[in-house]
Design brief:
The chain has 360 residues and is α+β, with helices and mostly antiparallel strands. The protein is 35% helix and 28% strand. The longest helix is centred in the C-terminal third of the chain and has 28 residues. The protein is rod-shaped and about 105 Å long.
Length: 360
Amino acid sequence: MTMNAVSAMRQHRLAMWVLAISIVVAAYFPTGEGYCADFPVPLSSEVVRPGAESGPTRVSVGVWLLDILQIDSAAQTLSADLAYVLSWRDPSLAHRQPGVRQYNLEDIWHPKLLVANAAAKLDPSLPEIAEVASDGTVIYRQRLIGSFTQSLDLRAFPFDHATFRIHFVMAGQRPTNIQFVPNERMVAAGMPSGAGVTQGLTLQDWRVTGSTARTSPYQLAPGFQFAGYVFEFQAERLKQHYIIKVIIPLLLIVMMSWLVFWIDQSMGSSQISVAVTSMLTLIAYRFAIGTEVPKLPYLTDLDAFILVSTMLVFLALIEVIVTTSLWYKAHQDLAKAIDRYCRFVFPVAYAVFIIAILFH
């Protein structure tokens, strides 16, 4: 076989392979207009931000808080179920087919949103699919369930309120490249900021009072920012639980210790018995409510209330020992005077302290 014949045979085989590949491509991608989720073939070798040559890309954002699973005050975390929808226009994806086309999200340009304050890895609950209308309008919906870190000031606990934040960051894009705007449908539905909260949350010890969303660049370092968007909601702690189960029983224990001021000094053993019982009851009660109070490096209002209550019960015990000693040393008038004085000083001092906590 001559060299010309071998060369001709190779060219023939190459032509057959090219023809076979062409047939397969034509069978799977008859339109030649990109690819859909079922057949992920790249649209182009490089994905370019829509409108990059004319200015920032406009991205509408809608955020909806589906549920709050838990707010851990001591750990400074929020566990929530969150849904969001993004929409932008990409003329390169416009098509003439009726309805919408679906694309794998990673194969087209899209806002690569990360959560800056995620406490752990957040796994998307919905498929990473984008829907594209005939005019090139792209819609992407996602749902996130997980924990988010929060910086909470609990000094007013349990009469505190807080603003909880979920900060979305668009990796790789500067604030001048992206223009975030509220979702038009949510604005039309009466939510000006494009954010809302479901009614009837399962969380029992907090009440959501409002929500909002806004553009907020994320500063990684001084002078180095990424485009960002913040969803916030305001909530206040429901204090009834702590008033009924913690504060009122503690008030009763403290007032029980004041009975010693009304018992005659001749019954010194009864006075000491009441004072010691009040102190032991208070100590046992503090162990019982240990799980109700967040463990923090600073004092909350409830911590201060418990501390002062403990000090007053202890001072009542000291007063009983002093007056009993004075009684048996033939200073009955002085012992009675101290008791009469304490009947008013202790309640007034306690009331002043409670008022100071409520209105500080």
